[in-house]
Amino acid sequence: xxNYISITESEKKQMLDAVxxxxxxxxFGGIPEKVTLKAPLAIPHGLPEQKVFAKMSAMAAKxxxxxxxxxxxxxxxxxxxxxxxxxxxxEEFVTAYTPYQPEISQGVLQAIFEYQSMICRLTDMDVSxxxxxxxxxxxxxxxxxxxxxxxxxxxxxxxxxxQIIETVKTYCFGSDTPYEILPHTDGKTNVDFSDxxxxxxxISQPNFYGVIEDxxxxxxxxxxxxxxxxxxxxxxxLALLKTPGECGADIAVGDAQxxxxxxxxxxxxxxxxxxxxxxxxxxxxxIVGQTTDTRGNRAFVLTLxxxxxxxxxxxxxxxICSNQALCALRAGVYLSAMGSRGLERAASHCAAKAHYxxxxxxxxxxxxxxxxxxxxxxxxxxxxxxxxxxxxLDDAGILGGLVVDGKVLWCVTEQNSIDEIDEAVGIVREVCxx
Amino acid sequence: MSIKFTKTHxxxxxxxxxxxxxxxxxxxxxxxxDVVYIRLPEAGETLTTGQPFTDIESVKAVSEIxxxxxxxxxxxxxxxxxxxELINEAPYDTWIIKAENINKTAEFLTEExxxxxxxx
Lengths: 434, 120
Known about the structure:
The complex is a heterodimer. Chain A is an alpha/beta fold. Chain A has 12 helices and 17 strands. The radius of gyration of chain A is 25 Å and the shape is globular. In chain B, the strands form 2 sheets. Chain B has a 6-stranded antiparallel sheet. Chain B has a 3-stranded antiparallel sheet with strand order 4-6-7. The longest helix of chain B has 9 residues.
């Protein structure tokens, strides 16, 4: 931290003199005697750097690090270009927090503005916020956006990631919002809007089982009934699939972890939220806007702040008033580094390799796709001995798929080589094919 | 069409016994400052006397607007979506909602009584 220079003893004295006290302790004089510490905290003394390094390395060595990963289910291992770490570790950016005296930090605001612009382009939506905690929070916040005094019921696809369903249910419980879980057939959400009085429907694209939903058709039918459509999407898949905007969705949300954010044992991740212009006033969280300053230069501001909790208080429909600035920066740098063609190529690799692995797995006796519908980079297979197969893979340093209702949900990204896939399929064949 | 006022700074103009236009007073708009947004209720929303039916956002604050009647929203002033500043420019010519099926009202004030109140 080159910008941190501690004060000297004489500077300290000068400051104490200025406020008229002789010791720093006097500044805490207002704290009642009975709650002040009588002895120093019982914590160990500092250690030399070398010892700290050895201790931390020993702790890190306890982690099981797989050489190859075939598990997704909400978090995805993608290649992260070196420039992402390089830019995001610049000290001017290293804060996970959104600035509270924002306009003085033009660089941070511009970074957020660029992130918002890229999310809009990726989803084909009009407005993006500065991000929220994670994909599940984004989904729950989107449901809250659709509530009106007359309609508040939410329709939830059962093919959403279970963590999203749990988070939406928690929000609904807190805000007395009724919801209904829609069943799925062959991995696709069953939608019947006839006599539905819902405010919104929330679906995932691709869904938890990897299946590609008929988002366009769902939007058409939902809008006919005045129901808003929220699509939770995997941002990498948007390079290949029709975007939420193209399909006519009202709100696009998702976890932007695949965009340059490492798996890191589950977080911190990044929730993105983007919507059509009509819903701008209902979009929670911070929004950075572009304007011109008094000299006519391009400048950035936090805009539409009256939507936010610190202004609206108890009338706010959301209590989010921050964002994941550092993770959003990573997503922004990742997208700039990849470019639209790079992202499309990464997405094509994911889809092609996943389809290769699915075809290879299905050659094994007893293994077949659980659903016949089209998928992107995840697919669910019926597998005779799921636990045994995963444990054999684990022994070989390979993290296999996720067991879902006795079936296995596999995920393949551009990070998995054909050799790795062949090796993993070979191990599954050894266990299941006999 | 005579105009009636409420203590909570709304005005009401009845077109017949149970239909009326509702807006906010000149004093209310001047206290709020520049209005930047108002949520327009949907037709069919229920109105309860003394309960908020929408909120209005100015550069200074977000405030609630209270219903002066029991009834149902029949229409919102769509012009306000694009031009909320009409409330500042012509508060008494800019209605926010039209209410119908009115069967109960707040205790109304005359213009003179209202002016007394805001003089404080």
